[in-house]
Amino acid sequence: MVDARIDEEKLILLVQERRHLWNIKNVDYKNKHMSSRAWKEIGAELNVHDAAEGQFEKLSKALDKTAEFDKCD
């Protein structure tokens, strides 16, 4: 997979608009077909296609590490 440079703020906004990707209480949270379609839409909008989900996971993990680090202060 190519490590595409993407607009992280736009990625976050696009994921935020699709609550079923992150809200475990959403009725469609476990709907793999819907999730797959949403990631394809996000990738197409960002012109990264298959890389959108992976980039979001990297960003999410980096933010989690930052939050953990901040708790130590």
Report what the structure shows.
By secondary structure, the protein is an all-alpha fold. The chain has a domain at 10-49. The protein has three helices and no strands. The chain has helices at residues 8-17, 32-46, 52-72. α1 runs antiparallel to α2 (32-46). The protein is globular and about 30 Å long. The mean pLDDT is 84. Residues 11-49 form the MADF domain. This is Dvir\GJ16705-PA-like protein. It holds the Pfam family MADF_DNA_bdg.
In helices, the fraction of residues equals: 55-70%
Shape: globular
- Cα separation of the termini: 36 Å
How many DSSP-defined strands?
0
Low-confidence stretches: none
Specify the number of helices: 3
In percent, how much strand structure appears in the residues? under 5%
Q: Write the H/E string, N to C.
A: HHH
- Alpha-carbon Rg, integer: 13 Å
The helix-and-strand class reads: mainly alpha
How would you characterize the largest beta sheet? none
Question: What does the average pLDDT come to?
Answer: 84
Protein name: Dvir\GJ16705-PA-like protein
Domain MADF: 11-49
Pfam families: MADF_DNA_bdg
InterPro entries: MADF-dom (IPR006578)
Short description:
With 73 residues, this protein is mainly alpha-helical.
Layout of helices and strands:
Elements: H1 8-17, H2 32-46, H3 52-72
Helix pairs in contact: 1-2
Domain MADF: 11-49
InterPro entries: MADF-dom (IPR006578)
Organism: Anopheles sinensis (Mosquito)
